[in-house]
Specification:
21% strand, eight-stranded mixed beta sheet, four-stranded mixed beta sheet, 14 strands, single chain, alpha/beta, 326 residues, globular
Length: 326
């Protein structure tokens, strides 16, 4: 495949969503005292795309970006990881979304400040993208962040799912609730029709409770998610208790790794990538283990992106993970 140009051969995964410019004070400086800001990029869907590309999959990512130096920064960075970005819709008028991360150290939590209202990505519409990309893609991955951006972004998400389904492609979706973008009630109303016919549904236990009111044991929560969707596979992350995967017959569980966190942002996206990798390989339980290992590795890397490899993931699984419990 032409990694920076046209889609010339089969893709494994297509995804779309907002990627922002990420600004971080050096060290553990408070944002209000910062004299310097480190410039990176970050976006849930592009993080997944980059992680999958690092595992050797063929991936394309699309969004609506401003036609200026910040838009070029984002496109060039994602392209540099081997992700096809030829589907970007360039916007001559709208702005780039920004977010600021103030790193924390116990007992002070890290904080995130968004400056993304009115971004080019939030103005995306279903007609912005060439959906024929799905003719050449095995799988579509989406998150609940995109439909939270605007009504038109929500319509774009729905269109993506419909276009994938019409072509017989599989679909995964991470609920990925963001309280600063919408309320739990609004998220529930918008997401219920979107998650109904996906093949792989991913959520944190916290999001399942907050958005869908599901509580109880992890197994009860997973089964409750199952009642909201026709997805044959449901993954639930449990924080310090690891993660589980329910395939409608058996419950697969994976324990977490002990990590020394350098940067927690992007760990959930790395988990999603591992799970999608396993799903596409026909071994979702193995993908659950991959996801846990990738999330652990991501905790040790500054920035949003998973800068690692399948070999490093395999080495970590061989050396330090309690095997999957069936």
């Amino acid at each position: 495949m032409d990694r920076g140009g046209g889609l010339m051969e089969e893709l494994d995964v297509f995804t779309l969503g907002e990627t922002m410019v990420r600004l971080t004070p050096k060290g553990f400086t408070r944002l209000e005292e910062a004299a310097e800001l480190e410039v990176r990029i970050g976006g849930t869907e592009s993080n997944v795309a980059i992680a999958l590309a690092r595992l050797g999959l063929r991936v394309a990512w699309a969004s609506r970006l401003p036609r200026n130096s910040l838009g070029e920064l984002v496109a060039r960075r994602i392209r540099g990881f081997g992700v096809d970005v030829s589907g970007i819709r360039w916007d001559p008028e709208q702005r780039m979304g920004l977010y600021f991360i103030e790193p924390g150290a116990a007992p002070r939590a890290g904080t995130v400040l968004y400056d993304r209202a009115g971004s080019a990505a939030s103005a995306m519409t279903p007609d912005d993208f060439d959906w024929s990309v799905l003719d050449r893609s095995r799988h579509l991955h989406l998150t609940g962040i995109t439909p939270a951006l605007s009504q038109s972004a929500r319509a774009t998400t729905a269109r993506a799912i419909r276009e994938a389904r019409q072509r017989g492609r599989t679909v995964s979706m991470d609920v990925n609730y963001r309280a600063r973008l919408w309320s739990p009630a609004a998220a529930r109303e918008a997401l219920l029709p979107l998650i109904r016919d996906v093949d792989l549904l991913i959520s944190t236990a916290a999001d399942a409770l907050l958005v869908f009111g599901l509580q109880g044991t992890p197994e009860e929560t997973a089964r409750g998610m199952g009642e909201l969707t026709n997805a044959p596979l449901i993954a639930l992350t449990l924080g310090s208790e690891g993660a589980l995967l329910w395939d409608r017959e058996r419950l697969h569980q994976a324990a977490p790794f002990a990590v020394q966190a350098v940067d927690r942002v992007g760990a959930g996206d790395a988990f999603d990538a591992g799970l999608v990798w396993g799903f596409l390989a026909g071994d979702a339980p193995r993908g659950l283990l991959y996801g846990m290992a990738m999330a652990a590795i991501k905790h040790t890397i500054p920035g949003d992106e998973f800068i690692s490899s399948a070999a490093e993931v395999e080495a970590l699984l061989e050396s330090g993970h309690r095997d999957i419990q069936r």
